[in-house]
């Protein structure tokens, strides 16, 4: 019985010695694991930064395109108003032509579409800011 207990004690002492000898190795392994995780996170951050810059550039481009389209719509609306004034001047009782109505409806649709695009861009911009803040 004593020999059996001595043998178990020796096994436990061996395990303790292994544990004592193991921490430097475990520490190095943990350091390597943390360094690998850090490198992966830095790579993900760099990718995120590139994507955010790309999305920001795209947002600015869309805003410029939207401003240009809005300007064109305003110009077309002015042209339509002038045309309608001229037609009204020529004939006070004349009803605007079907073509004028179509142009007006198209301008109205474009303005509504532009407002929707603006809202979508603002929402997308807000979400991107939240993602950037989260990252």
From TrEMBL:
This protein's GO CC annotations: cytoplasm
Keyword list, A-Z: Coiled coil
Region Disordered, residue ranges: 1-25
Domain of life (superkingdom): Eukaryota
Compositional bias (Basic and acidic residues): 1-14
GO biological process assignments: cellular response to lipopolysaccharide; positive regulation of canonical NF-kappaB signal transduction; regulation of transcription by RNA polymerase II; toll-like receptor 2 signaling pathway; toll-like receptor 3 signaling pathway
Protein name as it appears in the record: TNIP2 protein
Organism from which the protein derives: Leiothrix lutea (Red-billed leiothrix)
